[in-house]
Protein backbone atom coordinates (compact mmCIF):
# COMPACT_ATOMS: atom_id res chain seq x y z
CA UNK A 1 0.00 0.00 0.00
CA UNK A 2 1.53 3.39 -0.97
CA UNK A 3 2.51 5.50 1.97
CA UNK A 4 1.13 8.98 2.51
CA UNK A 5 3.80 11.61 1.63
CA UNK A 6 5.52 12.96 4.70
CA UNK A 7 4.42 16.38 5.81
CA UNK A 8 1.05 16.30 4.05
CA UNK A 9 -1.95 17.16 6.20
CA UNK A 10 -5.34 15.46 6.02
CA UNK A 11 -7.03 15.77 2.64
CA UNK A 12 -10.55 15.69 3.99
CA UNK A 13 -12.80 18.24 5.63
CA UNK A 14 -15.08 17.62 8.61
CA UNK A 15 -17.76 16.08 6.38
CA UNK A 16 -15.33 13.45 5.09
CA UNK A 17 -15.21 15.01 1.64
CA UNK A 18 -12.00 16.16 0.00
CA UNK A 19 -11.44 19.89 0.32
CA UNK A 20 -8.06 19.83 -1.44
CA UNK A 21 -7.10 20.73 -4.97
CA UNK A 22 -4.42 19.10 -7.14
CA UNK A 23 -1.65 20.97 -5.38
CA UNK A 24 -2.75 19.73 -1.96
CA UNK A 25 -3.81 23.19 -0.78
CA UNK A 26 -7.30 24.12 0.41
CA UNK A 27 -8.74 26.80 -1.88
CA UNK A 28 -9.28 30.12 -0.16
CA UNK A 29 -11.43 33.13 -1.14
CA UNK A 30 -9.37 35.92 -2.65
CA UNK A 31 -10.61 38.60 -0.26
CA UNK A 32 -10.72 37.58 3.40
CA UNK A 33 -9.62 40.80 5.14
CA UNK A 34 -12.39 42.44 7.14
CA UNK A 35 -14.64 39.37 7.13
CA UNK A 36 -15.80 37.70 10.32
CA UNK A 37 -14.25 34.28 11.05
CA UNK A 38 -17.66 32.65 10.52
CA UNK A 39 -17.94 34.30 7.09
CA UNK A 40 -14.42 33.16 6.21
CA UNK A 41 -15.26 29.59 7.13
CA UNK A 42 -18.50 29.69 5.13
CA UNK A 43 -16.81 31.11 2.04
CA UNK A 44 -13.98 28.56 2.20
CA UNK A 45 -16.44 25.70 2.63
CA UNK A 46 -18.54 26.91 -0.30
CA UNK A 47 -15.50 27.29 -2.52
CA UNK A 48 -14.33 23.76 -1.79
CA UNK A 49 -17.67 21.97 -1.70
CA UNK A 50 -18.02 19.64 -4.72
CA UNK A 51 -21.83 19.87 -4.59
CA UNK A 52 -21.69 23.65 -4.99
CA UNK A 53 -19.57 23.19 -8.10
CA UNK A 54 -21.88 20.47 -9.43
CA UNK A 55 -24.99 22.58 -8.92
CA UNK A 56 -23.37 25.52 -10.70
CA UNK A 57 -22.20 23.40 -13.64
CA UNK A 58 -25.71 22.00 -14.11
CA UNK A 59 -27.39 25.39 -14.04
CA UNK A 60 -29.15 24.97 -10.69
CA UNK A 61 -29.81 28.10 -8.68
CA UNK A 62 -28.60 26.49 -5.46
CA UNK A 63 -26.92 23.36 -4.13
CA UNK A 64 -30.25 22.61 -2.40
CA UNK A 65 -31.55 21.44 -5.79
CA UNK A 66 -29.24 18.44 -5.51
CA UNK A 67 -30.73 17.56 -2.12
CA UNK A 68 -34.25 17.35 -3.56
CA UNK A 69 -32.98 15.48 -6.59
CA UNK A 70 -31.25 12.88 -4.39
CA UNK A 71 -34.31 12.47 -2.17
CA UNK A 72 -36.56 12.01 -5.18
CA UNK A 73 -34.22 9.51 -6.79
CA UNK A 74 -34.52 7.34 -3.69
CA UNK A 75 -38.19 7.77 -2.80
CA UNK A 76 -39.77 8.78 -6.16
CA UNK A 77 -42.13 11.35 -4.67
CA UNK A 78 -42.34 13.64 -7.73
CA UNK A 79 -44.38 12.29 -10.64
CA UNK A 80 -45.64 13.63 -13.93
CA UNK A 81 -48.78 15.76 -13.72
CA UNK A 82 -48.61 16.46 -9.98
CA UNK A 83 -49.67 19.71 -8.30
CA UNK A 84 -46.85 20.84 -6.00
CA UNK A 85 -46.40 23.74 -3.56
CA UNK A 86 -42.90 24.87 -2.56
CA UNK A 87 -42.85 26.92 0.65
CA UNK A 88 -39.78 29.11 1.05
CA UNK A 89 -38.87 28.62 -2.59
CA UNK A 90 -36.12 31.24 -3.10
CA UNK A 91 -33.79 31.16 -4.94
CA UNK A 92 -35.67 28.47 -6.88
CA UNK A 93 -33.47 25.38 -6.92
CA UNK A 94 -36.25 23.09 -5.71
CA UNK A 95 -38.64 24.63 -8.22
CA UNK A 96 -36.21 23.75 -11.03
CA UNK A 97 -36.05 20.10 -9.99
CA UNK A 98 -39.80 19.81 -9.38
CA UNK A 99 -40.68 21.47 -12.70
CA UNK A 100 -38.58 18.92 -14.56
CA UNK A 101 -39.84 15.88 -12.69
CA UNK A 102 -43.55 16.67 -12.83
CA UNK A 103 -43.05 17.54 -16.53
CA UNK A 104 -44.48 21.00 -16.04
CA UNK A 105 -45.89 22.37 -19.28
CA UNK A 106 -46.46 19.02 -20.93
CA UNK A 107 -49.50 17.93 -18.92
CA UNK A 108 -51.78 18.92 -16.07
CA UNK A 109 -49.03 19.57 -13.55
CA UNK A 110 -49.01 22.74 -11.44
CA UNK A 111 -46.15 24.25 -9.48
CA UNK A 112 -46.52 27.14 -7.03
CA UNK A 113 -43.85 28.76 -4.87
CA UNK A 114 -43.83 31.37 -2.13
CA UNK A 115 -41.04 33.14 -0.26
CA UNK A 116 -40.38 36.36 1.61
CA UNK A 117 -37.62 37.03 -0.93
CA UNK A 118 -37.90 37.65 -4.64
CA UNK A 119 -37.44 34.53 -6.78
CA UNK A 120 -36.45 34.80 -10.43
CA UNK A 121 -39.16 33.83 -12.89
CA UNK A 122 -39.30 30.18 -13.92
CA UNK A 123 -41.45 29.30 -16.92
CA UNK A 124 -44.79 27.78 -15.98
CA UNK A 125 -44.34 28.36 -12.25
CA UNK A 126 -46.52 30.77 -10.26
CA UNK A 127 -44.40 32.47 -7.62
CA UNK A 128 -45.60 34.70 -4.79
CA UNK A 129 -43.63 37.08 -2.59
CA UNK A 130 -45.03 37.07 0.93
CA UNK A 131 -45.30 35.34 4.28
CA UNK A 132 -46.67 31.80 4.07
CA UNK A 133 -48.07 32.18 7.59
CA UNK A 134 -50.30 35.06 6.42
CA UNK A 135 -53.85 33.71 5.86
CA UNK A 136 -54.26 35.95 2.81
CA UNK A 137 -51.13 34.53 1.19
CA UNK A 138 -52.17 30.99 2.11
CA UNK A 139 -55.46 31.50 0.30
CA UNK A 140 -53.65 32.84 -2.78
CA UNK A 141 -51.28 29.89 -2.88
CA UNK A 142 -54.11 27.43 -2.40
CA UNK A 143 -56.09 29.02 -5.22
CA UNK A 144 -53.07 29.03 -7.54
CA UNK A 145 -52.52 25.29 -7.11
CA UNK A 146 -56.18 24.58 -7.75
CA UNK A 147 -57.29 24.08 -4.17
CA UNK A 148 -55.53 20.75 -3.59
CA UNK A 149 -51.95 19.54 -3.96
CA UNK A 150 -50.22 16.20 -4.37
CA UNK A 151 -47.19 17.42 -2.47
CA UNK A 152 -46.04 20.23 -0.19
CA UNK A 153 -42.33 20.93 0.11
CA UNK A 154 -40.51 23.28 2.47
CA UNK A 155 -36.82 24.09 2.60
CA UNK A 156 -37.48 26.95 5.01
CA UNK A 157 -35.15 27.67 7.89
CA UNK A 158 -35.24 30.65 10.22
CA UNK A 159 -32.38 33.12 10.09
CA UNK A 160 -29.74 31.79 12.46
CA UNK A 161 -28.81 33.60 15.66
CA UNK A 162 -25.78 31.49 16.52
CA UNK A 163 -27.60 30.05 19.53
CA UNK A 164 -28.45 26.49 18.48
CA UNK A 165 -31.46 25.89 20.79
CA UNK A 166 -33.05 29.15 19.63
CA UNK A 167 -32.37 28.39 15.98
CA UNK A 168 -33.87 24.94 16.41
CA UNK A 169 -37.06 26.29 17.98
CA UNK A 170 -37.52 28.94 15.28
CA UNK A 171 -37.03 26.48 12.43
CA UNK A 172 -39.34 23.98 14.12
CA UNK A 173 -42.03 26.68 14.25
CA UNK A 174 -41.71 27.03 10.47
CA UNK A 175 -41.90 23.27 10.12
CA UNK A 176 -45.14 23.22 12.11
CA UNK A 177 -46.64 26.02 10.00
CA UNK A 178 -45.72 24.19 6.80
CA UNK A 179 -47.23 20.95 8.11
CA UNK A 180 -50.45 22.72 9.06
CA UNK A 181 -50.72 24.04 5.51
CA UNK A 182 -49.97 20.60 4.06
CA UNK A 183 -52.69 18.92 6.12
CA UNK A 184 -55.13 21.50 4.81
CA UNK A 185 -54.37 21.15 1.09
CA UNK A 186 -53.01 17.65 0.42
CA UNK A 187 -55.01 15.09 -1.52
CA UNK A 188 -55.21 11.48 -0.35
CA UNK A 189 -51.81 9.73 -0.55
CA UNK A 190 -50.01 13.08 -0.90
CA UNK A 191 -46.56 13.78 0.54
CA UNK A 192 -44.90 16.37 2.74
CA UNK A 193 -41.15 17.08 2.66
CA UNK A 194 -39.58 19.67 4.92
CA UNK A 195 -36.34 20.77 6.51
CA UNK A 196 -35.91 20.29 10.24
CA UNK A 197 -33.12 20.62 12.78
CA UNK A 198 -33.08 17.57 14.99
CA UNK A 199 -32.83 18.38 18.67
CA UNK A 200 -36.01 17.51 20.53
CA UNK A 201 -38.54 20.31 20.07
CA UNK A 202 -39.98 18.79 16.91
CA UNK A 203 -41.43 15.81 18.79
CA UNK A 204 -45.04 17.05 18.75
CA UNK A 205 -44.75 17.88 15.06
CA UNK A 206 -43.53 14.36 14.28
CA UNK A 207 -46.40 12.90 16.25
CA UNK A 208 -48.86 15.00 14.26
CA UNK A 209 -47.29 13.70 11.05
CA UNK A 210 -47.63 10.14 12.29
CA UNK A 211 -51.31 10.72 12.91
CA UNK A 212 -51.89 11.99 9.37
CA UNK A 213 -49.50 10.01 7.16
CA UNK A 214 -48.79 6.34 6.66
CA UNK A 215 -45.01 6.71 6.89
CA UNK A 216 -42.76 9.39 8.37
CA UNK A 217 -38.98 9.23 8.16
CA UNK A 218 -35.92 11.43 8.54
CA UNK A 219 -33.73 11.62 5.45
CA UNK A 220 -30.33 13.21 4.96
CA UNK A 221 -29.21 13.34 1.32
CA UNK A 222 -25.53 13.25 0.45
CA UNK A 223 -25.63 16.90 -0.65
CA UNK A 224 -26.53 17.91 2.91
CA UNK A 225 -23.29 18.42 4.81
CA UNK A 226 -22.80 15.57 7.24
CA UNK A 227 -21.52 17.87 10.00
CA UNK A 228 -24.67 19.99 9.79
CA UNK A 229 -27.66 19.49 12.12
CA UNK A 230 -29.85 19.94 9.05
CA UNK A 231 -32.10 17.04 8.18
CA UNK A 232 -35.31 16.52 6.24
CA UNK A 233 -38.50 14.84 7.27
CA UNK A 234 -40.49 13.01 4.60
CA UNK A 235 -44.11 12.04 5.26
CA UNK A 236 -45.89 9.96 2.63
CA UNK A 237 -49.32 8.37 2.25
CA UNK A 238 -51.43 11.26 3.54
CA UNK A 239 -54.83 10.22 4.95
CA UNK A 240 -55.62 13.13 7.28
CA UNK A 241 -57.19 11.03 10.01
CA UNK A 242 -55.22 12.80 12.74
CA UNK A 243 -56.55 16.28 12.09
CA UNK A 244 -54.59 19.47 12.69
CA UNK A 245 -52.59 20.74 15.65
CA UNK A 246 -54.55 21.99 18.65
CA UNK A 247 -52.86 24.21 21.23
CA UNK A 248 -53.18 22.93 24.77
CA UNK A 249 -52.35 25.42 27.57
CA UNK A 250 -51.74 22.49 29.94
CA UNK A 251 -48.75 21.39 27.84
CA UNK A 252 -46.50 24.13 29.22
CA UNK A 253 -45.21 21.95 32.07
CA UNK A 254 -41.99 19.98 31.72
CA UNK A 255 -42.41 16.21 31.72
CA UNK A 256 -38.69 15.56 31.65
CA UNK A 257 -36.04 15.28 28.95
CA UNK A 258 -37.26 15.10 25.37
CA UNK A 259 -35.48 12.66 23.08
CA UNK A 260 -36.99 14.09 19.91
CA UNK A 261 -38.60 10.75 19.07
CA UNK A 262 -42.23 9.66 19.41
CA UNK A 263 -43.11 7.35 22.34
CA UNK A 264 -43.98 4.53 19.92
CA UNK A 265 -42.26 3.88 16.57
CA UNK A 266 -45.43 3.91 14.44
CA UNK A 267 -44.63 5.03 10.91
CA UNK A 268 -41.56 7.03 11.94
CA UNK A 269 -38.33 5.52 10.69
CA UNK A 270 -35.16 7.62 11.05
CA UNK A 271 -32.49 6.69 8.50
Tell me the strand percentage band. 15-25%
**Radius of gyration from the CA trace?**
20 Å
Give the CATH superfamily of the domain at 64-252: Vaccinia Virus protein VP39
Structural class: alpha/beta
Secondary structure tally: strands: 7
What strand order characterises the main sheet? 3-2-1-4-5-7-6
Task: Give a description of the structure.
By secondary structure, this protein is of the alpha/beta class. It has a domain at 64-252: Vaccinia Virus protein VP39 (Rossmann fold, 3-Layer(aba) Sandwich). The protein contains 7 helices and 7 strands. The chain has helices at residues 37-48, 50-57, 64-75, 93-101, 135-144, 164-185, 203-212, and strands at 83-87, 110-115, 126-129, 149-154, 186-197, 213-219, 230-238. A 7-stranded mixed β-sheet has the order 3-2-1-4-5-7-6, with helices on both faces. α3 packs parallel to α4.
Which labels suit this protein?
single chain; 271 residues; alpha/beta; Rossmann fold; seven-stranded mixed beta sheet; 7 helices; 7 strands; 31% helix; disordered C terminus
Helix and strand arrangement:
Blueprint: H1 37-48, H2 50-57, H3 64-75, E1 83-87, H4 93-101, E2 110-115, E3 126-129, H5 135-144, E4 149-154, H6 164-185, E5 186-197, H7 203-212, E6 213-219, E7 230-238
How would you summarize what this structure contains?
Helices cover 31% and strands 18% of the residues. It is of the alpha/beta class and 271 residues long.
